[in-house]
Amino acid sequence: MTSTQSNQQTAARTALVVGATGIGGSALTDRLVDDGWTVLALARRAGAERDGVRWVTADLRSPDDLRAALGTLHPTHVFFTAWARQATERENIAVNGAMVRDLLAALDHAPLEHVALVTGLKHYLGPFETYGQGPIPETPFREDEPRLEAPNFYYAQEDELFAAAERQGFTWSVHRSHTVIGHAVGNLMNMGLTLAVYASICRELDLPFAFPGSETQWNGLTDMTDATVLAEQLVWAATTDEGRDQAFNVVNGDVFRWRSMWLRLADYFGVEPVGPSVAPNTLEAQMTGMDDTWARIAREHGLAETDLSRLASWWHTDADLGRQIEVVADMSKARLAGFTTHHRTSDSFTALFDRYRAEKLIPAA
């Protein structure tokens, strides 16, 4: 294929990014715009205006709203990066499965070529209600592991995707990420920004930067997913024969121990690192009552966001770092299929923190 043909093919592609203001959706939108795609960015509230992006606002839980919002749109590719947390897994299944089903049904008129779905390693570990309990696969997790017997909303989303693909004639891909770190504000699962805010508070108040998790996580191997790596894999799978009708793990490619990473994070922020206590010293406990403190810090440093709840998701970081099991994903399947992107996680954190500082989300050094 010539470069002219490649440019013409890209220009003919229109992507609908579902959850475009989230961590994964934001990075994916950036990547698609840079690559010359036309982007329809779907979210509950429109984001900043930019060239190459048309914002579409809709409630994913309303089939009528989706029909009204999408009825005149004709995307060739859909990237589904959203989910809505519910009180029970039964509700998670009902709500999140329906969002995939209803959105794709609302696009039954569109010339869909490929639909990509972002899930995660709870595919192997089970949902929040039974997380890491009972039989789980050995690490590193591989994509050919059978589903767990426990109900899981990821399975419901996959099943809705598979059914729509058969009915509407598009190809699909599923992308199982580990903890995703990237740039987003107001996200419910943002470890990168959560740790940056925590370290900033520790520095301002001269508090130790205490690891909030378990000794298992402190000492064991783990991995993470840079949002830019996720974005690259999504686009790769949607545009290559090797990526179609497949499920892939997606992590940075390196492994690390928190006992080393914690020292690097502490050094970046100039705080005193402290390891885990016998009982996890959770962030929710450490940061209780810090809302007014953060508002003061934000005012003094001229920061862009004074509302701590829009920056830090203590519960999610506590859940990840408090695990009593090793969590590592195997990338062999994607590598052998041709996806070779690799990031060093310490560099991912540093680049992210630099961006947070530049955008005045956290205080400068």
UniProtKB/TrEMBL annotation:
<dbReference type="Pfam" id="PF22917">
    <property type="entry name" value="PRISE"/>
</dbReference>
<dbReference type="InterPro" id="IPR036291">
    <property type="entry name" value="NAD(P)-bd_dom_sf"/>
</dbReference>
<dbReference type="InterPro" id="IPR055222">
    <property type="entry name" value="PRISE-like_Rossmann-fold"/>
</dbReference>
<protein>
    <submittedName>
        <fullName>Nucleoside-diphosphate-sugar epimerase</fullName>
    </submittedName>
</protein>
<feature type="domain" description="PRISE-like Rossmann-fold">
    <location>
        <begin position="76"/>
        <end position="363"/>
    </location>
</feature>
